[in-house]
Specification:
alpha/beta, DNA polymerase, domain 1, TIM Barrel, 2 domains, binds S-adenosyl-L-homocysteine
Length: 352
């Protein structure tokens, strides 16, 4: 089997080169090329014979772009990334004045089963490797370079695509360490957000890793009863346990936690529930990100009106909880998360 070099750190690549009988400096060279998105053919400071030899033994770029869609509204690009085994995941490139943000997937599908999420409908096919997660970024950078923006790079990363990052903990941690390597894509972890549905033991373990990313917790409910309606994970860990783990993360890292809260009509969006949420979060260094639910017709759940969002937001603010409404981007290029992949690879279309 070919070695996937994209997931190796400089030390491991140097070791790998040594094992092939190559001098150690080749490891450094190859690492830098891979993180610039190059395949072996483009590695011009390697002898041609070596490039040919490497092609037979290893994979430099484990991800390619199968499909892109560009939003006419705001230039958001939705990618369908293809792995070498044919599995596909989605990525979204969003443009902000402070640079480009890529939403990265961590698994092919997801096994968490949240009631509102399209990514989980067929379960999880497999975990992505660190090299594949990095490959998503390299593809997006290549896309920018090939589409007239050679100076633009992915500047921020959010682990909010398909998958539960903490269900693929080791590879996600490896990916985060690769990201910040100065010889690589060199994305500082302060520019990275990781979103979890709240796997409590992993939240605690992650607090010990010394990886200063922003932790987002998909809370979506002010109490256990409501959370269990939306998220099966709530049957394993209570809201109180998620809160304790969040508090621990704040204590350990000194960073505030972001709580994501998708407003679902008739389920979690009433003003009294905003008050309950405010009581739950009181005293915790945090911020609430309100997300109007992207309707998922398969799930029979409905989003809320702008007036309902405003009311919920105003209630939280009146209770002194820092909160904002998440800006929506790329509305015209595919609805809820996971739906492009479903359409393109599974042939599933939504009734409109
Ligand atoms: N598994 C992780 C990250 C992936 S989902 C997590 O649960 O956090 C990223 C965010 O999108 C999560 O907050 C998730 O709850 C939210 N999300 C999923 N489907 C959605 C939908 N249909 N509308 C709005 N938000 C959704």
């Amino acid at each position: 089997m070919s070695a996937v070099l994209a997931g190796m750190d400089p030390r491991e690549l140097t070791e790998w080169c040594r094992a092939q009988g190559l001098p150690a400096f080749r490891g450094k060279q190859i690492f830098a090329w891979i993180h610039r998105g190059a395949d072996f053919d483009a590695m011009t400071n390697l002898p041609a014979a070596l490039r040919e030899e490497l092609k037979g033994k290893a994979v430099a770029q484990p991800v390619s772009i199968r499909l892109t869609r560009v939003s006419a509204l705001d230039g958001t690009v939705k990618f369908l990334f293809e792995m070498r085994d044919g599995h596909c995941v989605e990525g979204v490139l969003m443009r902000y004045h402070h640079g480009c943000t890529l939403c990265v997937s961590t698994q092919v599908g997801c096994r968490m089963g949240c009631a509102f999420c399209a990514s989980t409908l067929e379960g999880c096919a497999r975990n992505l490797s660190a090299g594949e997660m990095l490959g998503e970024i390299l593809c997006a950078n290549r896309y920018l370079a090939e589409n007239g923006e050679p100076e633009t790079r992915v500047h921020n990363v959010v682990l909010m695509g398909s998958g539960e990052p903490f269900d693929n903990y080791d590879e996600v941690v490896r990916f985060l360490r690769l990201l910040r390597d100065p010889e690589g894509v060199c994305i500082g972890l302060r520019n990275v957000s990781l979103s979890t549905c709240g796997l409590v033991p992993k939240m605690r373990a992650f607090a010990e890793e010394d990886l200063p990313v922003t932790l987002s917790v998909s809370l979506h409910a002010p109490n256990d009863a409501v959370r269990r309606r939306l998220m099966p994970v709530a049957n394993t860990w209570s809201v109180a346990e998620v809160m304790d783990a969040s508090r621990y993360y704040v204590e350990k890292t000194g960073r505030r936690v972001i709580f994501e809260y998708a407003l679902v009509d008739g389920v979690n969006a009433a003003p009294a529930q905003a008050e309950e949420l405010a009581r739950l979060l009181r005293g915790l260094q945090c911020h609430v990100n309100l997300i109007p639910l992207n309707d998922v017709p398969e799930r029979g759940l409905k989003g809320v009106t702008e007036a309902q969002v405003k009311r919920f937001l105003d209630t939280l603010t009146a209770c002194h909880i820092s909160a904002t409404r998440r800006r929506e981007m790329g509305d015209d290029i595919e609805g809820a998360c996971g739906q492009l992949r479903r359409r393109e690879t599974l042939g599933i279309r939504n009734e409109t």
